[in-house]
Amino acid sequence: MSRNIKISLAVIFVFCLALTAVFVVSRAGGDDSGDGQSAVVVRSDSQRLSAPTDSKATFVEFLDFECEACGAAYPAVEQLRQTYGDQVTFVVRYFPLPGHFNADRAARAVAAAASQGRFEAMYRKMFDTQKQWGEQQVPLDDLFASYAQELGLDTDQFAVDYNSPATRALIDRDIADGKALGVTGTPSFFINNEPIKPGSYDELNSALSSAMQQ
Length: 214
Fold this sequence. Notes:
Layout: H1 3-22, E1 47-50, E2 57-63, H2 68-84, E3 88-94, H3 103-114, H4 119-128, H5 130-133, H6 141-150, H7 155-162, H8 165-180, E4 188-191, E5 194-196, H9 201-212
Helix pairs in contact: 1-2, 3-4, 3-6, 3-7, 3-8
């Protein structure tokens, strides 16, 4: 990775840490995992961006698709995936923050796309277009439905899944797990079930590399 990219990613992570301190979760519900089970970092049905058979480590991000810090961290996570995707399991947990008007809708759109096997495509779409739809104070259900159409999804099924109790329960469970695990903002990272708070891309890369050797 070039020196300029490393510098840019270091700035991104400083930005992420600063914003994480600002966007604190205030949802009701305490630390209950929401399903009568203890909170866990990864569940069997958690969305995976990669899942190699011989995985040497598990990298988890609790994220909010409208969060600017998550959008800033997105290129860094993609860089890690490019480097370690064939050796590391990359997991995404939904953690829409109440201060972001369309964050929950975006999470529901990604979950609905996942129901048709297009999780990664919608995940990328949300971050690639975040600057166009983020920070708006009007419902963007129609916009997210248009994304589903662009990705070639069954739009009728997308609408059903977007509004389904199962999708609601999935997102609420991720939020509850995150809160019980001490997540207070996004992005929040875990490697092999341990929370990490990197100050730069190099620190994040080093932590993941070290975990792979354990």
